[in-house]
Protein 1
Amino acid sequence: MAKFIRPRLDDIQEHLGPTLHRLGLRPIVRRSYESMDVLLVPVKGNVCWSPVEIIFDDKSVSRLPEASWKHAHLNEFVYSRRVLGDTGWASWKYHGKTRHDIEGEGAAMYEWLSTFIDQRELIPDARTPNCLENSRCGDAYLTLARDFSDVAIHRLEELDQGQAVEVLTFKDDLGRQITVPMRAASPHAPVYVDDEKIAIFPQDDMSALQGVVLRLKNDAGLQYGLR
């Protein structure tokens, strides 16, 4: 693997190095199915990575002894940054992957690559203060904030199987404490009312969470004789 990709890594260090250094990035190689992928990851002390990857066809595809720019393209992972009310937290939402052909040759190609990488906003990782690790927790916040004004976010200091647990809390219309802990790797999340679990919803289904909201609203309506 090293012999196959090393010449292209040398190209990247020589021609893209100044841009990567300024952005706090370094290239690493990951082997994928039929390709060698160059990822642009944070240097020590940085917490942001590039959404751009340089993808070289593997020799099983190109039939060449080393990776070639003529058999390369870019993958861009598209995200949007969402500010979550006045909580002080933000969430990055993933929208999909876009393929880009590399333009130009020689010096013009390296200039195009540098500009392309430089113009993409870096994505923070889970070490970034007040940035949610779990984007579905951001979805849940936006769902709940439509009906409740005091939704707060905090991250538990203790970890669950190596991952942070991010928690949404608020008071419902009856003054009860609602707690929604969410872990990125878990497919489901529970909802607690005054420490009693009342529901579990799929983290990727905000309509299910909206159903829990309606249940809380119905409880308040019944309590105050509105239903």
Protein 2
Amino acid sequence: MEHPLKNFSKTYRLETVVVSNPDTSYRTEKSYVRIAEVYYLGNEKEYFKYHVLVVDFNFSNDDNAIGKFLKQISYLFDELELTVDQDGNITGINNIDFLRLRWMKLAAKLSENHEGEAIDHYFSQISFVLEEESRLIDFLGGYNMFGLLFNGLLQPLDTKIKRLSSEGLTETITPGKDGDKIILTTVAEDPEPAGIDHFRGLYVFREGHNEEGFMEIMKNHTHLKHSLLWIG
């Protein structure tokens, strides 16, 4: 079976927009943009190897201390070697030891100029994620990381399916056609138990590969908009 990213290097623009308290006078909006190059490295039986290289970051708040801190943290995950199944789910992180060593060095460097309970909590969260490969796979599969690309939908569907999303709810994905495009729309069956007020998304495929994706989630007084765009 031919994989949609096989024999190609592709470049994607990924963006997460975070709108806090959207319906109030103290509404704030932040944007986090990454440009990622995806390279096919070969396959082992039914699994595929990819090198993901984030070549540019553009954070709207990187002119303040917190924004600069988050940007430095993001560089930890700017180079990934992934094993992916035929559906497009991440099944392995091939350079996890490299990431762990990199985090030890980065955490030591950041600790020289950053301190406090919030910083310590952030450090602990990253260390916890890196301890177990399964946790790291779940983290990288989140919509704010690479969940719009490596999420089991690298190839278009021809029938409606139901599945558990990374947000912990059941989503229904329905395919449709628009000319030479296949468009998948996704909605949540019952978002309330997961604490989500609104959940919807779509994926656009042309000639068998993912050209565009969008996911919108509202929860905890926060409006999250995640997008993916193939740019070359």
Protein 3
Amino acid sequence: MFTGVATYYGARVAEEQLQQSREEAERSMRSQAAQVAYWVEETQGPTRIHFANQSPNPISEVLLEFYLAEIRTEAGKRPIYERVNFFVTLESVAPCAEVTFDARDMKRHPDSGMPVKLAHLDGSFTVRYAAFKDREGSYWVRDDTGLARAKSKSEAFLANLVRPTAPAGTVTREWSGSVKSRPTEKPARACEATTTPGL
């Protein structure tokens, strides 16, 4: 009887230790990705999209998707839902760095003619998601539901293929957008170095 009880408790301890090891491994795996974030700054000045790598190691193969949307109304006509979609790629983001995309540097591309600035649109920006590769070569996706690891680069970059839906009863006008070739980059304010960059 004593042997049976000892075996039972020994198995329980081993199971708890295994679970603890798995949780520690998961935390370690997510440690860098958890320090990557984005946010929208809407003040009285120009709107800015911020993307920050607050880890002490670089990230690479970054894809950031966001859009500007506005509903316009004209007398006697159905409301018009206008949206400009932006897909921004960055080869890398340095350790403890924050990248900023300024609305003044953004343009929309009409079906014909030259790209035009967003002066006629004063709607709101929404970031759909960010995909990136960490120092270990793992791909991650962050969106408004949280952070998730992707099995491959293609899975990460195709994470949100479903387009945002227009509000009911509106007519949709949609364009692609672009920003200047390299956005502003500066040191991230909230960044604590815990390891040597590049390791």
